[in-house]
Amino acid sequence: MAVKIQRKPKGAYHHPDLEHALVDAAIRTIHEQGVNALNLRAIGSQLGVSRTAIYRHFDDKSALLARVALEGFRIFRLALRSAVDEARKRGADPLEEMGSAYIEFALANQSHYKTMFSGAFGSWDRYPDLITEADGAFDVLLSTIREEQGTSRIAASHDPMRLAHIIWAGVHGIATLGMAGHLGPHDGTDGQLEELSRLHSRILLSGLRSRS
Amino acid sequence: MAVKIQRKPKGAYHHPDLEHALVDAAIRTIHEQGVNALNLRAIGSQLGVSRTAIYRHFDDKSALLARVALEGFRIFRLALRSAVDEARKRGADPLEEMGSAYIEFALANQSHYKTMFSGAFGSWDRYPDLITEADGAFDVLLSTIREEQGTSRIAASHDPMRLAHIIWAGVHGIATLGMAGHLGPHDGTDGQLEELSRLHSRILLSGLRSRS
DNA sequence: ATGGATTGTTGACACTGTCAACATTTTTCT
DNA sequence: AGAAAAATGTTGACAGTGTCAACAATCCAT
Fold it and tell me: Taking 90 as the threshold, does the pLDDT of residue B78 lie above it?
């Protein structure tokens, strides 16, 4: 497939690929100005298209945001997956590295991360694809835990699902509280939150190596 | 001080205590319909007052939300404090009981909790009182950790502030992900999330009793 | 090529936060 | 007590935004 023209040629009635362009523009805007700053009219005129053109591709604003979230989960899953694989290759702890990658993603894509998790698009039930994609990311964590239990690096006595929930909650908490500035001042460039995440992983894993 | 009349008497120009009435109405609306459903016009007419009367008591909508959050942190702090005291009296683990109380508060006041933590009111910097009140709630956790380290029930080798951040992040994560339905289906009436929080506490504390 | 499906446009509306200007009530000062 | 000032509440208006309805242009399959 040849490279697609990104901008609409002047005077053309139909945009070459408005749907993707809308998603890209939304992601960019969210990244640069936050979710709250996103408005459909600006997105439209940014693409040289009228303010309601979006409605031929998305039911409403929420649907666009859900799509943005979906793209986020896709990249997120790849990042987590690659962190685990890398760790295994290097003999590092996969869960600790995954936690670190989690924080790294959240910090590098703060508004995108918020779009994924702060209910900006309303109910998840309306977007089955989004649920599937989010489950895919979660599965990286869950399967890694199961594998670690298989090699007995962590106790097999705990329900892996509950462990996954606890670990997820921890890193998610560090990410969200950290971004809100509640875990001390930090500009996101220093690795302070990643360090906190590593400490979190080590304490948890230490607790999981002991008996029950 | 005598009991104040809550509703504005018909025809009265001045509301007896509009400021508190506004906060109460906002809290009630948020509790019943969520933060997003809150709008100033509805609040006004609900109190028999015009739509802009609020501006004599709050700079803007954000300021009202910040006040709602502040009230939340006050109640929150009391709940955490009392959970710790209760636990000590009963010989239970103070940190585990505090975690449980944390989840209980969040579940019983979901929208209020979101108002406190989801940045609904914009930047914290604008509301120094809010920061103070939130710090007060955090101090319940921090001081409890220090006390537990004093009695050596948890290792004193860790920075208590970092431990507080990690524990807080864990319960906050459980609360927010749980409310979003990400930790399995639950209606909030069963104690599923509280149970998860207890498991979380036990694993962490187990890890904190080991060396390092 | 032609008729229906797809995609984009314009006009309009409702909802909401907020400001300015004015009105009324309460408090303060002499 | 009376006047001035401060506090509190009201009405009118406006801007920003999401969304719908009706219409227009383009694309595609038969």
Answer: yes
DSSP A13-55: SS-TTHHHHHHHHHHHHHHHH-GGG--HHHHHHHTTS-TTGGG
| Structure tokens belonging to residue A200 | 């979190």
A75 phi, psi to nearest 5 deg = -60, -40
Percentages (nearest 5) of helix, strand, coil residues in chain B: 70, 0, 30
Q: Is the CB of A50 under 7 A from strand C?
A: yes
The pLDDT tens digits of the residues spanning A20-51 come to 999 999 999 999 999 999 999 999 999 999 99
| Interface contact flag, B162 A210, Cβ < 8 Å | no
Radius of gyration of the CA atoms of chain B, in A:
20
Please name which of B148, B171, B154 lies closest in space to residue B99, comparing C-alpha atoms. B171
Write out the two tokens for A203.
């304490």
Give the one of A119, A176, A196 whose C-beta lies nearest to B162's C-beta.
Answer: A196
Helix (H, G, I), strand (E, B) or coil at B19: helix
Burial class (CB in 10 A: 0-12, 13-18, 19+), A10: exposed
Give mean pLDDT, residues B193-202.
98
Collapse the DSSP code of B106 into the 3-class scheme (helix H, G, I; strand E, B; otherwise coil) and give the result: helix
Top-confidence residue, B107 or A1: B107
Q: Are the Cβ atoms of A172 and B176 closer than 8 angstroms? A: yes
Whether residue A207 and residue B212 make contact (CB cut-off 8 A), yes or no, is no
Which band of pLDDT confidence, cut at 50, 70 and 90, is reported for residue B14? confident
* Distance, CA of A18 to CA of A7 (rounded, Å): 9
Residue A199 has its nearest CB partner, among B119, B162, B174, at B162
Distance B28 CA to D6 C1' (A): 32
Task: State the average pLDDT over residues A151-171.
Answer: 97
Average predicted confidence (pLDDT) for chain A: 93
HSE of A176, CA atoms in CB hemisphere, 13 A: 26
Q: Which of B26, B109, B29, B110 is nearest to B68 (CA)?
A: B26
CA pair distance B108, B189, nearest whole angstrom: 9
Closest CA to A141 of A89, A201, A184: A201
Rounded Cα distance, A171 and B172, in Å = 10
Neighbours of B187 (CB within 10 A): 7
